[in-house]
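Hi V.,

You were right to ask for the full record rather than a summary. Here it is.
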Amino acid sequence: MLINELKPFMQKKDYLWKGILEDIFDDFLRFMHPNADDIFDFERGITFLDKELEQLFPPQEDEFAAKIVDKLAKLYTREGNEEWVLIHCEVQGEYKSDFPHRMYTYFSRIFDKYGKRVSAYAILAEETTKMRTNKYTNEFLSTKLEYQYNVYKISQQSEAELLKSDNPFAMVVLTVRSVLKSKGLNDTALMEIKLKLARLFLAKSFPKEKIRMIMNFLKSYIHFENTENNIIFDKELQQITGRRTETMGLEEMILVERERRGMKQGVEQGMESKKREIIINMIQKKFTDEIIADIANVSLEYIEEIRKTLPN
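Predicted structure:
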């Protein structure tokens, strides 16, 4: 593939990483630190300082430099006294020898500007499983500087462990890992991988928004050479979720599948109240009466009677 042809694809990955990190940054931190909720006060929000980071460390002139994306986030801790810290995260698609020095340069400039504690993470999305250092060291005549940061190498991660995880960021790692492991595969093989991951994601008990985010990441990150396969993939998704028409969006399909499963469970348990509860839930989520009637196997009149009992 020529360098000009690579440019849009590389930029696309850049946007995807930027987007998914912003969308599930809290899950990323929980993935790295199981006790993250004891450390960070997520209810106070996360502020991304990308523009400030770019001012401190302007983009390299080489548009095809190894870096994919970097993020700087401001979070409050649970230590009180309005204490906040900075999280620096860099995703690296191709490792270069100056990477540890660049990580230190980031730290020094960030700390110099803000004077706050910084924790740094390097997510290595390269194909090789070769170990990479997590330190930058500079030493001369008994003077020594050592900067250590967190390294997470996707190609070294266990698929079995990721599959067991209930963290949305693990699903992102699974997607990227699948791409790294699928070099040279044709679209038919990629389709199988992509659909397998889609089924896995849909089966997870993630919040609606989280599923939408990681499914969008999956759809765009695993790239088909033949763009017509994207249409085939969408149709396969419709079959997986049991959707009968092609006009429903992915987010709504996910909701339909969840409600259908809940309805089936209620029927199996002989619980009329469960059925009514699910119908109310679908009404509140703005499903049409036709869709609700189809899933619940009830009449439109029955749904209308339930609507009358609900507050406006």
